[in-house]
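Quick illustration, no need to memorize.
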Amino acid sequence: SASPWIGGAAGAAWATVFSQYAALWMFLRWFKTEPGRTRSRIAERMRTSRRSPNFSSPHAPPPPPPTAEKDNSSAKSGGSGSGSGKGKRKGPPPSRGFLSGRFSVLDLFRLPDAKAVREFLPYVGPVTATAVGRISGYLAMSHVASSALGTIDMAAQQIIFSFFCCLTPVCDSLNLTAQSFVPPIFSREKRSRKRADALRRTLRSFLGAGVVMGAALVGLVAMIPFLGGFFTTDVTVMSQVTTAIPGLALFFALSGVVCVGEGMLLGQRDLKFLGNAYGAYFFAVPAVLLRLKRRALAGLQDVGVGTMWKTFSCYQVVRCAIWVIRMAQLQRRTEAESEGDAATGEIVITEPLGL
C-alpha cells in the first residue's frame, strides 16, 4: 500500500503492535481457562442438542447448565485411587487456568498492593539494568553503522541483525530455565552439603546444555551465506555480510554459557553484582563502539560491519569470563558455608531435592 500509515515500515510497525496484543490475548485466555472446561462445555452442548433437537427455537427452553457430578466423582476416585497419595501430581502446578476466577481485565489498570511491590522491588534494578545494558550496545552498533559506514554496510548490518534477533531467543531459554530451577534449591534446602552438591550438579548440567546450544547456533550462523539470497540479491552486500560471520559466530558460541550464567546468578539472587555489571556495560560497550566511529570518520581505520561485530564479540568474551568466574566464586562460597555448618553440626536436612 502507498499509504504512509499502513505501508512499508509503518505497516511492519503496526503488524508488530497487533501481534503483541494478540499474544497478550492468547496468554490471558490460557491462564483464565481451566483444563477441560472448554471441552466439557462443547460435549454438554452436543449432548443437549441430541436430546432436544429444537433447542434453537425461540420458544424452547435453554439447555441446562453443565453439572459438576463428573468432576466430583473424579475427585473422589482420585483421592481414593492409590490410598498412599501416589496418584497426586508432583512438581509445580500447571499454568493453565491458575487465574480462573481471580483475574479480570480491570486488574491490568489497577496498581499492585504494597506487599507485591516489596517482593518485586529487589529485581527491578538488576533486570532493568540487564535490559538497558543489552539495548545500549545494539543502539550503539546501529548508530555507528548509520553515521560512519556506507549504505552497503548499513544493508549488511540490517541482514546480520535480523539473523541475530532470530537466534538470540534460543539461548535466552536457558536463562529462564535456570531462573526456575535454582530458587527451589535455596527455598527447600538450607545451608548444607546437599545444597552445595545440588547447585554443582545443576551448574554442570546447564553449562553442558549451554555449550551444546552454542555449537548448534554456530552451525546456524555458518548457513547465513546460503540463506542471504532470501534477503538481498546484491553481491556486494552479501560480501559484507560474510565479513561479519566470524564475529557473530564467536558471539553465539558463548551465548549459551552467558545465558546460563545470568540465570544462575539471578536464581541465587546475586542482584547487586548483576546490576553493577550491566551498569558498567551500559557505558563501556557504547564507548568502545563510538571509538570505532571516531577512527572511521578520521580515516585512521577501515571500519566495516565485520570490524564492528568482531568488537561486539569481544564484549561477549569479557561477559562470559566474568560470569564463569562469579559462578565459581559463589559455588566455592556455598561449599565453604556448608562445610562450616557441618563442622558445627547446626544443619541437618533429610528431605530429598528430587533433581
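The chain is about 70% helix and 0% strand.
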